[in-house]
Amino acid sequence: MTKRFSLLAIALPLAIAASAPLALGQSLANRISAASDRSVQFTYPVRAGVCGDGRTYISTGSGNFYGSFSTNAADQCLTGPVRVVADLADKNVIALRTFVGGSATAETGITNLGTVTSAEAADYLMGVASRADGRVGRDAIFAALLGENVDVTSRLLDIGRDQNRPLETRRAALSGLVRSDSQQLDKIGPALVQIATNESDAQGVRTTALSALSRLDHGAGIQPLVQLAGANLTSWVGREAMTVLARSGDPRARQFLRSTAQRTDLPDEVQAVALRGLGREYVTGQDANLLRSIYPRLSGQRSQEAVLASLSELGGSDNVQWIVGLVRDEKLAPERRRRALQYLTRAGATTPSLLALYDPITDTEMRQALIGVYSRLADKAATDKLVWIARNEQNPTLKRRAISALSRNTDPVIRQALQDIVER
Fold first, then answer.
1. Region for residue 199 given its phi and psi (left: phi exceeds 0; alpha: psi -120 to 50; beta: otherwise)
2. What is the pLDDT of residue 70?
3. Could you tell me the CA-to-CA distances from 395 to 185, 368, 392, 398 in Å, in that order?
């Protein structure tokens, strides 16, 4: 009898021990599916460089914030586990909420599954992304990429290529490739090029693929973008690739834009993309000189506008004086001079410099345009100039234009001056 009891006592613990791995070995998906509450929570280790306040925002580094963030909350950005709350309906995930930092205590009515590995979390979340529609798929990808030491490159590519998946989910997958393992760049780059050049795919997805190329680590996507743009300049993918390159400060991108901007064999709209790109946030003084030197030989309106827009955004005395020269140049078509005047005000021209343009110019349409500029300036010097024009201008059209501009001014002094002019 004693012997039999001893065998039973030994057998019971062994049976319990044998069944334990089954419970512990359940997949995260099964554990979530078995939960009795409508919401479940699980946590997992966060990757380096990610922090949050546990409630309203997540920072993934380099000034990238997701959620509601205010500058006075920066000291609350805490590293800590990723916490995902999945809302369920009929065992299906209908919403995902992701937090980093702060307390991992589950709210009332939420089943807390505790901590899982980043690999388990990523496997489950990418499974959700591969099935879910719309925002849930996008949010699942975002949460998966927050995990420590996870590589989901292959699954992101599968979703990105799958034309049966929602566009929002596919774009999230392609954007997520930017944060993938840098050792996979040789695989990611060609895949993004393939998607970008697939004319049977949605343009929104193709644009996202091009954007992702430009943001790959170590500039790995810049040369493929240069090749795409150079070989397809007159096609959609070529123009889009060039537009993406315009947002890059990579020297290879800048050199490509400089070379393309100087070509004389391109359609107006294509050259305009290169010129506009050259003048964006990475523009240098040398680039400004190049843009000014190119302008005289441009015949297309879009290309001309691209140069003027770029230089007016850059501003500076050299560019202001150059645009002033265009406004004064009577050899140019009146329309080009009027467009230059529009950009002159954006370039930071001072009121005195704008007022000095009126008297030397004899063209009626240019003077009308200047009156419009003065009425928008609305400062005392500009208003005084309008009064002077209303009193002294011999051209009745210009005189009426100045009076009309002044009639909107509620200053009693100006109203009296206007009455005196009208009654003369």
1. alpha
2. 61
3. 68, 11, 9, 5
